Amino acid sequence: MIRWFANNDIAANFLLIAILFGGVYSALYRIPLQVSPTYEFDSVFVRMNYRGGTAKDVEKSIIIPIEEAIQDLPGIGQLYTYSNPGRGWVLARIEDGVDRPALLEEVKARVDRITTFPNETEKPSVYIPDSNSFTEVIKVAITGNLTPKELRHAAEKVREELMAAEGISQVELVGERPYEIAIEADQEKLRSYGLGFQDISDAIRRSSVDMPAGSIQSTSGNLTVRTRGQAYTAPEFASIPIRAANGADLRLGEVANVKDGFEEGEQLVRFNGAPAMMVEIMRHDKESALEVAEVVREYVDTAEQRFPPGVNLYAWDDESISIRGRLGTLASSLLQGCILVFIVLALFLRPSVALWVVIGIPVSFAGGILCMPSLGLTANLMSVFGFIIVVGLVVDDAIVTAENIYSRLKTGIDPIEASVLGTKEVAVPVTF
Questions:
Q1: H or E stretch including 140?
Q2: Which residue from 233, 230, 236, 228 is spatially nearest to 180, judged by alpha carbons?
Q3: How confident is the model at residue 264 (pLDDT cuts 50, 70, 90)?
Q4: Would you state the pLDDT for residue 209?
Q5: Each residue of 393-407: pLDDT tens digit?
Q6: Residue 128 vs residues 85, 93, 377: alpha-carbon distances, Å
Q7: pLDDT value at position 208?
Q8: pTM of the model
Q9: How far apart are CA 64 and CA 116, in angstroms?
Q10: Is 144 exposed, middle or buried (0-12, 13-18, 19+ CB in 10 A)?
């Protein structure tokens, strides 16, 4: 192959140009730019919430039915289960060589077919974790002397606007307190009406619910009947009837104080000494970490005018700075290596030899970049650091090969033959 390319210089030059342009195209359009390497999990996670359930209840009503439903699936190895009060997990190890998306869909289908879950359970979440979903690229801090509710509303607005921005698909709130409807019963009023706590619980369970009621067939088509009575706000809960007598309704708000607020417990998040909430922005799939960070910074620079006075936004913890700096180090190292190689070889060998050696260095890097998509590699801190290390190896190999060819030329043999013999002599050590 070395002799063939030496005798067919036009083909060699076309291949050089193709590798160079292919590497540039792959770097710009085919290789995702991320901060940390993507980690692929080898398990299917099934998570399910059971409001008010003990760990034993979770095991009996959730864990065991899910285990029985999926344990015989081809491609699943060991099962690991965790039961906590109010929540349970099932982790199914995926065997090597199994089609993960297909297995995930089969697990979802089998879990959805389970009909014995209690009414207090929530819809199960079945997924294979993606490391990109918990490795943020940049954060936005929302601060100001605001009430917790005002701060939460401002943070939710930031999240919605960033989700609508082009190039961003994963945004999460950090530091928020979950909303909660608190119902504090007045025991004196309950006793005066002859009621107890169970009556309040039964009334809420009976009235605050969305329930399908079948369908009605008519000449104009089928009509779906559904009861929509789920309460979501304090006024809606306060209007729930507890008891009706003589044409009058006793409502929940008359015997209890209904509060629409946050869960109990102290949680402090500060930024520059002021109350704050964080919005984390992650990259997904083919998105570029540098582009995501740039979009977020542009948003922060222009967003404050759309918020009330006193609300401040800051771009913070920008992880893309590290990958940007490492790319800069790679570019400067490559440029310095090419310049030094050209100067040294031009002085001690020939300028033409130095020129072709310098051209070969970026072409070799372009060839490596061209192979990255087919190998499933991305541009991240680890892979770019690998390229930085390889700069020295490529430069040394280029000098060794060029000097060996030049020493052959000095003996007076044909230039083509000198190129072939000089390259073959060092081909094995240079390759290794």
A1: strand 136-143
A2: 233
A3: low
A4: 57
A5: 887 888 888 888 888
A6: 23, 10, 20
A7: 61
A8: 0.65
A9: 11
A10: buried
